[in-house]
């Protein structure tokens, strides 16, 4: 892969955006590689959690503007459709995805953070959706950011284009944890490994359930949950987990 690196540490996969000279701008080629890699990881099922990080000093500065300037809208749409497919691959994946954020995460880079299931940020990290400043509103990033943070804060981010700090990102729900810069990798891996000890089948069914019920009415969601928990109670993973609980031992997941 030209624009990505990938390694596995036990049951955790680590994808590194590898265009540090552009602050890991999300080019069409990078996004194609990213979708292909995510779908390969999903199919192989060798890891249970995946971390996305950036090489160098930034997480991602967003789309490569050289691929937008003076291009026909059909060409630009191809870029954004590929971004759509990469984000969808994260959502479709059985594994939870964790963004590990250092430096800046702006525009589509901020969108990628919001699209991941969880995020850990270095204390010095900064987040923004600054398209308004260059005459092209951050339409696609705001679609995800506004679903991660409160509506008023998302509107402010989109219409001022100003940075928010990691602590603000934590306060408004864009990230799960803020840690000292030098402990970013250590703390992200701790979170990843705390999830990776569980059955991938359970993680997959839980992730699919979580996003499907998220925007349902309360009792519609509860009815769906009741159906789901009843169905999955008969799986081998559930039987093994409950037996292990009564036998006071660790469950033996696949």
At a glance:
Keywords: Fatty acid metabolism, Lipid metabolism, Transit peptide. This protein is an alpha/beta fold and 254 residues long.
Neighbour order of strands in the largest sheet: 1-2-3-4-6-9
CATH class of the largest domain: Alpha Beta
Total strands: the figure is: 9
* Structural class by helix and strand composition: alpha/beta
The rough form would be described as globular
Strand residue content: 15-25%
Mean pLDDT equals 96
Task: For the record, give the distance between the C-alpha atoms at the N and C termini, rounded to a whole number.
Answer: 30 Å
Report the radius of gyration as a whole number of Å. 19 Å
**Total helical elements:** 10
Q: What is the CATH T-level topology of the largest domain?
A: 2-enoyl-CoA Hydratase, Chain A, domain 1
String of helices and strands: EEHEHEEHEEHHEHEHHHH
Largest sheet: 6 strands, mixed
Number of domains: 2
Please characterize this protein's 3D structure.
The chain is α/β, with parallel strands linked by helices. The chain folds into two domains: 4-196, 2-enoyl-CoA Hydratase, Chain A, domain 1 (Alpha-Beta Complex), CATH 3.90.226; 200-246. Helices cover 49% and strands 15% of the residues. It contains ten helices and nine strands. The protein has helices at residues 28-44, 73-92, 108-115, 139-148, 151-160, 166-171, 184-196, 200-213, 218-232, 236-246, and strands at 4-9, 12-17, 49-54, 97-101, 104-106, 118-122, 126-128, 164-165, 177-179. The strands form two sheets. Strands 1-2-3-4-6-9 form a six-stranded mixed β-sheet, sandwiched between helices. β1 and β2 form a beta hairpin. α3 (108-115) packs parallel to α4. The chain is globular and about 65 Å long. 38% of the residues are buried. One of its GO terms (molecular function) is hydro-lyase activity.
């Amino acid at each position: 892969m030209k624009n990505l690196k990938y390694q596995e540490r036990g049951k955790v996969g680590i994808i590194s955006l590898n265009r540090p000279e552009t602050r890991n701008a999300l080019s069409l080629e990078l996004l194609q590689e990213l979708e292909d890699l995510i779908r390969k990881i999903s199919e192989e099922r060798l890891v249970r959690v995946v971390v996305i990080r950036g090489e160098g000093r930034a997480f991602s500065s967003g789309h490569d503007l050289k691929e937008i300037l003076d291009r026909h809208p059909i060409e630009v749409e191809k870029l954004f459709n590929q971004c759509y497919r990469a984000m969808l691959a994260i959502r479709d994946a059985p594994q939870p995805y964790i963004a590990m954020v250092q430096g800046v995460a702006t525009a589509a880079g901020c969108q990628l953070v919001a699209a991941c299931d969880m995020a850990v940020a270095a204390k010095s990290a900064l987040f923004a959706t600054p398209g308004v400043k260059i005459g092209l509103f951050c339409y696609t990033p705001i679609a995800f950011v506004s679903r991660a943070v409160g509506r008023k804060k998302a509107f402010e981010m989109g219409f001022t284009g100003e940075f928010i700090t990691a602590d603000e990102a934590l306060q408004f729900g864009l990230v799960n944890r803020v840690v000292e810069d030098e402990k970013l990798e250590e703390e992200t891996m701790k979170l990843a490994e705390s999830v990776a000890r569980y059955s991938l089948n359970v993680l997959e069914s839980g992730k699919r359930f979580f996003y499907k019920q998220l925007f349902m009415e309360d009792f519609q969601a509860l009815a769906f949950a009741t159906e789901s928990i009843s169905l999955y109670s008969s799986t081998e993973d559930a039987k093994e987990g409950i037996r292990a609980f009564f036998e006071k031992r660790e469950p033996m997941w696949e």
